[in-house]
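Hi team,

As requested, here is the filled-out complex form for the fructose -6-phosphate run. I kept the field names the same as last time so the parser does not choke. Let me know if anything looks off before we queue the next batch.

— J.
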Amino acid sequence: MCGIVGYIGNNDSKEILLNGLEKLEYRGYDSAGIAVMNDKGVTVFKEKGRIADLRAIVDENVFAQTGIGHTRWATHGVPSKVNAHPHQSASGRFTLVHNGVIENYSGLMREYLQDVAFNSDTDTEVVVQLIEKFVNEGLDVEEAFRKTLSLLKGSYAIAMIDAENDQTIYVAKNKSPLLVGIGDNFNVVASDAMAMLQVTNQFIELMDKEMVIVTKENVTIKKLDGQVVERKPYTAEVDASDIEKGTYPHYMLKEIDEQPLVMRKIIQAYQNEAGELTIDQEIIDAMNQSDRVYIIACGTSYHAGLVGKQFIERMAKIPVEVHVASEFNYNMPLLSEKPLFIFISQSGETADSRAVLVSVKELGYKSLTITNVPGSTLSREADYTLLLHAGPEIAVASTKAYTAQIAVLAILANVTAKSRGIDLDFDLVKELGIVANAMETLCDSKEEFEKIASEYLTFTRNCFFIGRSVDYYVGLEGALKLKEISYIQAEGFAGGELKHGTIALIEDGTPVIALATQENVNLSIRGNVKEVVARGANPCIISMKGLEDEEDRFVLPEVHELLTPLVSVIPLQLIAYYAALHRECDVDKPRNLAKSVTVE
Ligand code: F6R
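And here is what came back:
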């Protein structure tokens, strides 16, 4: 989704801003722009399309030590040069970039800005026009900025410059992420630390409804009532090299290959000196005090939650419900007496999940966030956090975060079970080690999955994934991976459900990818495969060693029956990757999608 950068210092800001925007490209965007300022005024460059297109129109000869930049993912108004940020006030004095959604923008336009001619269709332009209006009415810039913020409803991360003062960037945040980075004689602004790791690893978190006056020497955080807030910077743990592709053609392939290593890192991170798995006692107490766990998440993280439900119910014997975040707030189920909420989110910034967190906090319930990003909004605002230790995930299609989420959920269920005196007949550390080795074997079998992709998916317009029990959940994830990056219409179904309607879609040659990793449903899923084959489907059965049959296309190395999703998803990730590649799709940046979905 949208990204923000800003720089104020002694160097030329253009290159720093453009490099920063490039680091945010993975989040998904459709246009981009920068505004740079020196003592002669402000120059804006913006373009629809990629940062490379923007780079091509930036005038090399402009030297400016202050600037702001933006990548836009359209919400209000089509993707276009006009709607791209930065936006300027009517006189051109104020220039602003914004992430988020101003929900009351049309009301504000009617009430305050009847006489102003708007240039764009965006909600953002209201903000910059309001600031100018209040300055024209006699407020100083800081007062006008503050007054405008107090009128806004919705989410925003904002950076603004004033053509009459090239020594300041005005910054504000509510619900959308924003950080201020600290340097030696310069300071920066970024919606994601990654954008500015090129110049600093020291960042200050901003809280909702705070504004910041940033100069090259100082950062002054204030609440909207003007009260100054002191906050120390933290060191961003991300290594700049973690976000490079290295020799890989795509981040997605790199991240698929990283999964065995991530498993090993997780085992290490959650082991104590005696080699036992361990989790903060407060979290285990919260699990044990709850009579029902509610897992809240979106997309791939929701699919990981479905697998997590199996772990928590089977190992720890606590009932679990899994909900799509965007539905939960509007259709809240009858809650149990002592619920515990678990939020699963790679980014820790997903607005739909955050909206649920805000609601359940208001109701006084405890919450745990499982995330890849320390210090993210969902992590800060929940009572407890468990980290994924997966390293930055850059490709829009989530891969290593999914398996990391499942592994952390397995550890949580396992440690909770032990704390309840439940005897488990397997050693999870050993089993996760076996999983890591099996993942490695699968990552070494890429040619096989490339062949499957070209055989089954090169010319098809649709594809079905079927499975039973936990294989059904992995099928949902396989379908999501395939559709989001290859644009093939793909759906996952419970094997037994097809004959209740969907089987009508099966035609000669329709690819049906079936997972068979569970002994108790092995025969029934094979029965479902026969049903679709009888109607012309082209089946691709992926089974597990010990359950294989001669009709199977690929046999996975054997792992513990509960942990099969950690390995069965890898062929599906790779098949989706190669299908997208064969169709010449932009694997890492699929159309219309954003990495971190910060609007509801
Ligand atoms: C799909 C994908 C998305 C995310 C979803 C939630 O590959 O990445 O479906 O899983 O947008 O994002 P997080 O996990 O950051 O809350």
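Two things worth flagging: Residues 298-301, 345-347, 350, 353, 397-398, 480, 484, 596-597 surround fructose -6-phosphate (CB under 6 Å). The radius of gyration is 25 Å.

Thanks,
J.
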